[in-house]
Amino acid sequence: MTPLVEKGLNAITIGTNLSTGLSYPSDMHRAKEMFLRLYRAGENLSAEEISTWAKMNGWQVKDADELGRLGERIGKGEKLQIPDGPWWNENILDLLMQNIITPKKNRPAVDLSSVNNS
Length: 118
Fold this sequence. Notes:
The protein is built from 5 helices and no strands. It is mainly alpha-helical. The protein has one domain: AhpD-like. The termini are far apart.
């Protein structure tokens, strides 16, 4: 997994209610859009890598597996609807590469208003 994919997963995790996984439409839409942006940036999205990372970072097993499957589907070019976007700042990948969002386990309180349009 590349550092950019990991930072994208951190961003998804920070904005997701981990007790419900992707069941809220807004959480699902943010995850879809992040994966689409990563895919368009040429990143490899592996279900196994994403799921394993998510399980190690607070996601419930079934939700981590769902996140992994979603990422891989988008990473294989499947087109999914993402209503009411954009869900992220247009420069989110650049911001992530500049360490605007830090990893969840070490992060201080983060103001997502600068990276999340919702």
